[in-house]
Design goal:
heterodimer, A: 323 residues, alpha/beta, 8-stranded parallel β-sheet, 9 strands, B: 220 residues, 3-stranded mixed β-sheet, 28% helix, globular
Chain lengths: 323, 220
Amino acid sequence: MTSNGSTNVTSSHSSDTATWTVKAGLAQMLKGGVIMDVVTPEHAEIAQEAGACAVMALERVPSDIRAAGGVARMSHVKMIKEIQATVSIPVMAKARIGHFVEAQILEAIGVDYVDESEVLTPADDVHHIDKHNFKVPFVCGCRNLGEALRRISEGAAMIRTKGEAGTGDIVEAVRHMRSLWSDIRRIQGMRDDELYVVAKDMQVPIDLVRQVRTLGKLPVTNFSAGGVASPADAALMMQLGAEGVFVGSGIFKSGAELDDGTASGHKKMLDSQRAMATAIVKAVTHFNDPQILAEVSMEIPDSMRGQSVSSMAPSELLAGRGN
Amino acid sequence: MTPATLGSRAPASPGERALIGVLALQGDFAEHIASLNACGIEGIDAVEVRTLEQLAAVDGLIIPGGESTTIARLLIAFELMEPLRDRIRAGLPAWGTCAGAIMLAVEVTNLDRPPIAAMDITVERNAFGRQIDSFEADLDIAGMEGPPLRAVFIRAPVITRAGAGVEVLCRLDDGRIVATRQGRLLATSFHPELTADHRMHALFARMVLAAKASSAVETT
């Protein structure tokens, strides 16, 4: 390749897109940040203004998906494009587990990350999407190290622990994060020849198991999802080893009681959601500083009412989808 | 250790260690700290910076990759913007990668908060498009010895204007500027912290050591 002719400064050669470094790299840029579920351009604007590092464009937040029942699919393309046009931060969107055509469509409209998500109704109860085939990077959920490494072997460039979306109950998010780290610490204490059995039991490639032992962490960025409903919840997940946090219903389902149908009631609700979003962003930055967490917690409205996971029937739980 | 080719003034006197901070409000600050620790320059320590006290203690600062809108808001919310601007304008060596380069610029296209505004450059955010347009390329950096540097561009900005006192360190084939230096300030559109090649970190570490040594001379 030739230089463009300027002196002293020279040129670039051999440029490549959609490499593993580039796919995993965007997730690294999101670290220490909050990714917020948004269903309208108005929400997206509030999220960006509050300091979200990315937004997840959805047709309904998970608690509404639960309430509505029926089949939950990829969001309407028109809605995703409106959100892309509204914000300058990365825009993610969800595809159903195994629905590689939804993922193709999301790639075609230029979303920055695809979440192959158990929150939507699975399209394939055996196979996940072969994510290596895409230029757009993928994030996938996990409940433990085995699920995480199976998703990474399929090409996921970012992982989030699943938690239980739409409940406002943090207990499953904690369970999954603790399980993941407990598996990682167990592997770190093993002899080389013991790793084969781990790979066999987890049904994952031995190379990934070795990588986890060397790194002492997952080989990709790992966020927490599914149940964060307050700044304290977000900081809890960070202290348990999350590198960032997804918040869904916890922001745009808070303050719902303020919306009495009047314009001023609606505005009060949005102001309250704005305060919650801002507080969670600050809590993730200073997750280890109880003094700042206390100050941040002064500024927030009531959290979403929520639904305790222990009161739910197993068939209502989403986290078991796509293991 | 190879001799410095850039920032090659006398190193600080033995025992005089330099503390390099990495702004840790949001972004890939952990990768920068790992790269500093691995860059092979002796006499430096790397720390995360989230508070005024931490900022006051450092001899140099890296502003990492991340989301520039998020970092700008957190700088303002935690009242770090003004102190940071004051320190950098008073001569604190600083290096911004990607979002960090955006923060250092005096002028930014499409950022809804004022940046730190220290380096006389104009930066355009997301200049290459969306994530599917992110890429890696081999770059020749002015003054850097050895093979080309493998550079990772993620939703990257470009430097659309470099002022009179700004040295252009690297352009892409199409002429767009992706690395600049102005005195003690360094800006790169790409992410040297995402690769195992730590030459840019070594360059910045030498800049910090040289600045510390020269300020020690001034005060004695």
